[in-house]
Structures are given as C-alpha cells and as structure tokens.
Amino acid sequence: MLDRNFKQYAKLSPFELKDQLIERASSDAQRLMLNAGRGNPNFLATLPRWAFLSLGDFAMREAERSYSYLDSGFGGLPEHDGIVQRFDAYATHHRQADGVRFLRLAISYVKDQLGLDQDAFLFEMVSAFLGSTYPTPPRMLCHTEQIVKAYLTQEMFGSLPPNGEFSVFATEGGTAAMTYIFQSLRANGLIKPGDKIAIATPIFSPYLEIPVLDDYQLEVVDIRMDRLDDWQLPQSEIDKLLDPAIKIFCLVNPSNPPSSKLSDGTLDQLASLVAKRRDLFIVTDDVYGTFADDFVSVFAKCPYNTLCVYSFSKFFGATGWRLGAIALHQDNVFDAALEALPEIQKLLLDKRYASLTTAPRKMQFIDRLVADSRAVALNHTAGLSVPQQLQMALFALNGLMDREHRYKDAAKQLIRKRYQTLYRHMGVAALRDSKDVNYYSLIDLQEIGGTLYGPEFKTWFIKSDLGISFLFRLADETGVVLLPGNGFEVVDTSARVSLANLTEIEYAAIGKFTRQVLDECHQDFKKAIVLQ
Ligand SMILES: *Cc1c(COP(=O)(O)O)cnc(C)c1O
Questions:
Q1: CA angle at residue 185 from 179 to 189, to 5 degrees?
Q2: Is the CATH number 3.30.420.60 carried by domain 142-369?
Q3: Which of 12, 26, 147, 493 would be a feasible disulfide site paired with 16, CB 3.0-4.6 Å?
Q4: pLDDT exceeds 80 at position 171
Q5: pTM of the shown model
C-alpha cells in the first residue's frame, strides 16, 4: 500500500489535493467523512447579524416614506434629517429585539467613543442596506472606515500607541486584498520580474503560488520559522532580509498552519531590521490576529513599511460574506517608492491614471489599489458592495462594543478545547504556549512517530517520504481528510488540521484515527526491518 505512486500529487496546491482526498474519504457511503482540511469555521457571530436584520427592517420603512401612495412596491431613497429620531421611535416599538438593542448601543458608541455624527452614521448604514447608490467614496464608506479603523486599532496594536493615521480599503475578503496588492505593485513598477520576494514559511499556500505566476515571475526566498523555537523567526533568517535585492516580505501572523503569533522579541527584531531596510515592503496578513492573546501586528510595530491585510471571514464565521480590508499608514514606504521611481516610469504612470486626476503623481498607493482593482477606467464604480460594508461595520462594532470579550473568549475557548481533545485522543501531550492560537494544528507525524516508536522509526518514516501517502491512507481507511504540511512549506512530514470546522467528538475521532494509521505505519516499519 505504501509504495503507491503519490509523487504525482506533490505539485498540487494543498487545497486542490484536498479534493482528491475528499473523493477517497467519501467513497464509503456507510462511513462519515471527517473533513478537517478547510479553515472555514463552523461557528459565527449572531448579534451583528441580528443587527443587520433589524437595520434592514428599519431601512425598508425609511424607503417607503417616499412614493408609498403609489402602492406598487415603489420606494425612495432615505432621508438624512431626523433619521435617528425616527429610529428611536422605531426602537421603542421593537426594543425586545437583540438587533435593535445592538443598534441603539451602536448609535451611542459611535458618538461617544468615535466622535461620529449619529444621523450621518445611521444614514450611511440605512443607505448601505438599501444599496441604491454606488459605493462612495469607492475605497470605503466614510463612517464605516472610521469604525473599521477603530476596530483594527483595538485588535492589531495591543498596548502599542497608534503611530500616525492610517487608511482602509474594504475588499472582497482577504482573497481580493492579496490579489489587488500584487496587481498594483506590479502595475506601478514597484515589483518587477526577477525581483526577490521573501516569504515567512510555513505559510498559507497562495503566498507561495502567486509570486511565481507568469504575471509576476518573482524569485522566492524562504524565511524559515523554526519549529524548535516556537515558530519564531530566528535572527539568522531575519538577516536574510538585509539583502537589498529582496523587495518585499510577506508573512501571515499568527501563522497558518503553525497557528502561532510572533513574539515581542521577534517583533523587536523586525523593527531593528526595517531601521536598516527602510525601503523594504512588508505585507502582513493578520486574519488570525483576533484569536490570539495580546496580539500586536507588524503593522503596529513597523507602521512605515507595512501593509496590513485583515479578513472578517474567520473570526466572525463569515467566509461567504467576503469581507476583508487593506490598511496602510499615511506615511509609508509604498508612496515613498512611487516618488522615487525614475522619471520615465513616472511618465507612464501619469498616463495610466490621467483619466482619474489632473495630478496623478499625488495619487497615493492605497488609492491606486482601488483604481487598479477595476482596470483604472472603472474607478468610479469600484469598491465593495455597500450592504457588505454595512455588515462589516456591524462586525467591527461588535468587536468594539464587546468590552467583556464574551464572543472573543467563546471563540478562543472553543478552538483550544478542540485542540486538547485532538491530541488527547492521539495519545500524545498537547503542548500549549501563550503564543499559540490553535486555529490550526500541524500534526508533526515524524516527531510524534519518533516519540511513540523511537528514533529508528522516525528516520525510516522521513526516508520513506510517507507524507502524502499517509494522508491518502487516512482518507481511504478512516474517512479523515487533512492537508499536507509540505504544501505550506513545512519541513517536517506533517498534516494540517483545521480546528475551526468540526465538533469536539469529531476531533476525538480524528485523533484516534490518526493514531491508528500511525500505528499501522509502525507495523509496516517492523516488517520492513525484518525483510532487511
Ligand atoms: C482564510 C485566509 C484568507 C482568506 O480570507 P478571505 O477573507 O476569506 O478571502 C487570507 N489569508 C489567510 C492567511 C487565510 O487563512
């Protein structure tokens, strides 16, 4: 069984390999498939969704204030003046509804804590629900941007003081954010074919796959995080970034799949590095930051060099909503690099953006991201759909108003309990470090095998290159689907388990089955020894 040819799958992205595994795992109709391959959570935030529903109910009444005499399903645009007063009257009649209570608190919160005008805020929200106007400004609705900024400041800066203003571009999830960033860097001549891109590995596999596309032709330099050092970046790896040929450094923090945040020490090392590499572009993907304890982003630590990608998908259980954001400080290396481009390139870019502004050279990188996302010419109809922006604002407000961290603690405890259960049923100790997030776990098959059956087994297991065949065997025999660690540039033979999307009982079964197949490998090892 073990010598089947699995090499053909080695080039597939782990997410495509998953489909092959699912086929095997679901081949037995009598058996339940346990797919822990996907990061899609099976929990979600209900309160901000109730708020969306209540706001919608109110928004419809606002729309029907105009033309209602026509009695033909005809409505009009909402009116700004007196909108909070009308909401208060509505809320008095619906005060039992959780969504209405949330909105009442939100209307106070934005005034008291963010200094926003209540009528203008509510008008923006109501208009966003109705979706009768293009997103204006295209980058992001004004009040929504203020709210998301406050949310990102709360979640990404930890105890660090804000370091200058930043702007936000609302995108169709982290997915679109990544796409837009690479596109605009290329279109603006900030990265060119042959340039080096440094990537902190292991990493969410698209970061490995995008740079080598024909569109970009970047040369990838691995910046390895060390398993033996709690998945931090050793100084020797950080020093690789001193190479001026490296234009850009991408990282996911907390990481995926090790699911560990960078320590304060590592953040300090990165801050020292950018003091020497002021020209380095950094893109940090902090999708899992909200699951970590006391999280501080590289965006907060190295504000000048860093573009931040955030997504509401994982924490709020909202992958289908497609809600993400790109944040960039006013004073930043991307705009500095645009200014430093050779005149000949600036002239080309003047032409690229001439239809949008009379002063294209003043156009900031974040606004170029918006324009480039819609082939420049369609800049006026760019932007995230406004009902999506409304739900984004409500998610962010949920995070801001949840002072006691009730939702956050529940989400964290849920995944961490699953992690404990998984390892307990594998029969190995579940290690826990304060930097761990436990959204995923990398089951280090070779290390666990070594611990359980001794170093000879470990050597044999590594030499036999059983990573992918292990996953197929697990799928064939037990219906469990895990992703290969090597697809995420993990060095050890390992499997990624998502702790986000199954029940605790199912994680117990996955632990048990993983151990069962490891035991089988051990039997194979003993037979192989005898044959020698
Ligand atoms: C899930 C994930 C994304 C994609 O997020 P969406 O907002 O759903 O597009 C981006 N980056 C990382 C590291 C992820 O794990």
A1: 145
A2: no
A3: 12
A4: yes
A5: 0.95
